[in-house]
Specification:
Layout (H helix, E strand, L loop, with lengths): L2 H9 L3 E2 L4 E2 L6 E6 L4 E8 L7 H13 L6 E8 L15 E8 L7 H14 L4 E5 L7 H4 L19 E2 L5 E4 H4 L10 H13 L6 E7 L6 H9 L4 E6 L3 H16 L4 E6 L20 H9 L4 E3 L4 H9 L3 H4 L5 H22 L6 E5 L3 E6 L2 E5 L1 H6 L27 E7 L3 E6 L4 E5 H6 L1
Parallel strand pairs: 4-5, 6-10, 6-11, 7-9, 7-10, 11-12, 12-13
Antiparallel strand pairs: 1-2, 3-4, 8-9, 14-15, 15-16, 17-18, 18-19
Helix pairs in contact: 3-12, 6-7
The structure holds adenosine-5'-triphosphate and magnesium ion.
Length: 444
């Protein structure tokens, strides 16, 4: 075996947890140089510069290589994959790797606050970031992110507008920049959509790892059209813990599902209050929304952010809280976790293979569920009786209100559609509609 192969053999045991394969098979190891004296160097090329486990990979590479007794020194360089132009994206977005929509159904839940803090978190983790404030009627980006602004510049040759540069290199665009003096004109739906399209695709975003879109509130035409103009890679849903918001989450998830965009994280904002002088967390609006999201939709990535006056102060002054506090601050910690989780999910969506189970109805046998080691038939009526929607379970008490005997034993699904990578939507022959998380198939 050549020396290079001996090293590759050792490196093969290092698995990328998100892509589920070893780093040699994934083609991460490049430019290997081996001197006669046993000095080894190579590059480990990651899929994204914001890879949350890059330092772990580096250490594992060093340790695995040093196991060979002829190796004296090892130098591992980290790099990220060369950006490919994205053919499916229109003009200004051609060098944008992933588009993440931050949405909610209701206004005022903290969407813009989450979008801006998330943007700075991902930037700290090493990514190139842009923020597009798609709210035409209440743009908030210039308030939330302080950046020098002297008017927009349009390239006369290409017609493209330059985004506003934040001192950290982040790219910003908002209707507030495009029309700073006047309030928004009265516009009808198609005009709004056109204006969003022009500003979003007419901005020369340049090379970005993630473009964060602060979506306008609601689940109407504007949102749907946005997803037709640009390929949105993934979405983050923001909600507050009140009952009404939880129903909004459901609507929001269904909206993103119609748009064919997986929801990769749910952020429950203003979740609780913790006074500075003691450790009790007060769940003012009630606790448990996070658990319900996991149970009802199968989205494991649910995060709680407390109510904290510092969040408002930082947002109002243009310096998002994650830029003002260190990594030990509890709110910064949550954002770091959200950022890492999103980087992983997006990387899986872009580079990974599909890991979604197959679910189909076979007449006479039941619902056939196949995933990894699991291959089984599930009785439709049993699955339907386990529905966890707001009609079948009391949202507050968690007590089941659905009467099992109201579901006929010969019930069948009339359609099964995939929802993101976490659930299927089943329409039943009794007219009911259930979102069934894949996890639920394991437990029946
Ligand atoms: N966790 C929090 N603690 C305290 N204040 C918060 C928190 N999250 C957001 N806020 C404040 O709540 C207000 C509304 O937040 P934000 O503007 O982000 O909501 P939004 O969903 O984008 O609203 P809109 O629908 O109007 O766009 C802001 O003043 C913001 O600073
Ligand atoms: Mg907003």
């Amino acid at each position: 075996m050549s020396k290079e192969n001996e090293i590759l053999d050792k490196l093969k045991r290092i698995i990328d947890p998100d892509l589920g394969k070893d780093i040699v098979t994934l083609g991460f190891i490049q430019d290997m140089k081996i001197s006669d004296d046993g000095d080894v160097s190579f590059t480990c090329e990651l899929t994204t510069p914001a890879c949350p486990v890059k330092e772990v990979f580096k250490k594992q590479c060093e340790e695995a290589t040093m196991e060979l007794d002829w190796v004296k020194t090892v130098e591992v360089n980290l790099s990220a994959q060369e950006k490919k132009p994205q053919d499916d994206k229109p003009n200004g977005l051609s060098q944008v790797q992933a588009i993440i929509a931050v949405g909610s159904c209701k206004g005022g839940v903290g969407k813009s606050t989450v979008a801006t803090n998330l943007a700075f978190t991902l930037q700290k983790q090493g990514a190139k970031i842009g923020i597009f404030d798609a709210d035409i009627f209440g743009p908030s980006l210039p308030t939330m992110v302080d950046a020098p602004f002297e008017g927009l510049f349009q390239d006369q040759g290409t017609g493209m507008i330059s985004p506003v540069d934040h001192p950290t290199g982040m790219k910003l665009m908002s209707f507030a920049y495009a029309n700073p003096s006047k309030g928004p004109a009265i516009m009808r739906g198609p005009m709004v959509t056109n204006a969003i399209k022009q500003l979003l695709t007419g901005t020369a975003w340049g090379e970005l790892d993630y473009l964060i879109i602060d979506m306008p509130p609601g689940t109407g035409d504007i949102q749907l059209t946005l997803s037709q103009i640009i390929p949105i890679t993934a979405s983050v849903m923001v909600t507050t813990p009140q009952k009404i918001s939880f129903i909004d989450v459901e609507k929001g998830i269904q909206m993103f599902d119609k748009m064919n965009v997986p929801v990769v994280a749910v952020v429950e904002n203003m979740s609780y209050f913790k006074p500075d002088d003691h450790d009790t967390k007060y769940y003012i609006f009630g606790k448990g929304a996070k658990r319900k999201i996991v149970e009802q939709f199968g989205i494991e990535e649910a995060f709680e952010i407390p109510i904290d006056p510092a969040i408002t102060q930082c947002g109002d002054s243009g310096f998002p809280i994650v830029t003002q506090e260190n990594d030990e601050h509890p709110i910064v910690e949550v954002y770091n976790a959200i950022g890492e989780s999103i980087v992983r999910s997006v990387s899986r969506i872009i580079h990974g293979e599909s890991t979604v189970p197959t679910v189909e109805f076979v007449a006479g046998q039941g619902i056939h569920y196949v995933f990894q080691d699991s291959d089984k038939f599930v009785n439709p009526a049993v699955l339907r009786r386990g529905c966890r929607c707001a009609h079948c379970i009391n949202e507050f008490t968690g007590v089941k209100v659905l009467k099992d005997d109201s579901v006929p034993d010969d019930l069948i699904p009339t359609s099964i559609t995939v929802m993101g990578n976490y659930a299927v939507n089943i329409q039943w022959s009794d007219g009911h509609d259930s979102i069934i998380p894949y996890k639920q198939f394991d437990s029946v």
